[in-house]
Design brief:
By secondary structure, the protein is α/β, with parallel strands linked by helices. It contains eight helices and 13 strands. The site of manganese (II) ion has 5 residues, from loops. This is Beta-1,3-n-acetylglucosaminyltransferase.
Length: 277
């Protein structure tokens, strides 16, 4: 029996990869993405920013969207961007919405492999919390009560199936995401968790293969790197939190993303100059 067309195995083209960025990171973070994992998912990846950048926009094949959201790290600015990301996703009609920050390395084949295990026609919220407990906030509808829910850290990346995204629309599409975010006064990734877990009563599925810089990245073992879906990097008050991986010199690759990319995909042109160990 032939399968109905909609039940074919998920392919890369069925995934909408959404990267949140800001004008001041175009030259550093987006160029680094361009030199690494972007080559594996050019057509699927869209960048959401807050300023015009003709040259970068051209290099990204028009996939640089100026959200016209205000710049800055404010709750408003960031939830404004998430709202635009979700609206673009809905219009794309793809099976999966995957959000990433611009300091994330995406292991593209592993993401595809992961999503192939889940049915996009069912409700799936895949990601990794950075807290060891659910978030607890005051319930404004029931004075004196608290409500708790889990949320996936935006900086680790998370994915939402089309079925679930459709159910989120009343709270998340066409400007309503910002209204929801303002009601609970929480950051964009918490708002996603609030909509899915509290309002829609669905559950976050924890994927341990996602890694934000809120965890100790240097603890990930060398032999486990290939299996992971996302990595990040950070520098807080001079302290680096990066993968412990051989490859390029620290001066050339302070974030270690070029090195991990060449470890995963050694045949890339960017990896020709890699010192062999
Ligand atoms: N970001 C933004 N506007 C800003 C600052 C940051 O859209 O003014 C985005 C940034 O591009 C990234 C995410 O928000 O995708 C998280 O920013 P960052 O990594 O600088 O901070 P973190 O919250 O991880 O410490
Ligand atoms: Mn970050």
């Amino acid at each position: 029996l032939s399968q109905p067309k909609s039940d074919t195995q998920t392919a890369l083209k069925d995934i909408f990869i959404s990267v949140k960025t800001t004008a001041k990171y175009h030259a550093s973070r987006i160029r680094l993405i361009q030199k690494t994992w972007y080559a594996l998912a050019r057509d699927e990846t869209y960048f959401f920013t807050d300023g015009n950048d003709k040259e970068l926009g051209r290099d990204l094949g028009g996939h640089l969207i100026n959200t016209n959201c205000s710049t800055g790290h404010s709750r408003r600015a960031l939830s404004c961007k998430m709202a635009v990301e979700m609206d673009f996703y809905m219009a794309s009609r793809k099976r999966w919405f995957c959000h990433l920050d611009d300091d994330v390395y995406l292991n593209v084949p592993r993401l595809l492999e992961l999503l192939q295990k889940y049915n996009h026609k069912q409700d799936w919220y895949l990601g990794k919390p950075s807290l060891k407990h659910p978030l607890e906030v005051i319930d404004r509808d029931n004075p004196g009560m608290k409500l708790t829910f889990w949320f996936a850290t935006g900086g680790a990346g998370f994915c939402i199936s089309r079925s679930l995204a459709l159910k989120m629309a009343p709270y998340a599409s066409g400007g309503r995401f910002m209204t929801t975010a303002e009601q609970i006064r929480l950051p964009d990734d918490c708002t996603i968790g609030y909509i899915i877990e509290h309002l829609l009563k669905q559950r976050l599925t924890i994927i341990n293969l996602f890694h934000s810089h809120l965890e100790a990245l240097w603890l990930i073992k060398r032999h486990q790197l290939e299996k992971q879906v996302t990595f990040s990097y950070s520098k807080y008050s001079g302290k680096l939190n990066v993968l412990n991986v051989d490859g390029f010199d620290v001066e050339e690759d302070p974030t270690r993303l070029k090195s991990v990319h060449c470890l995963l995909f050694p045949t890339f042109r960017e990896c020709e100059t890699l010192p062999r160990h």
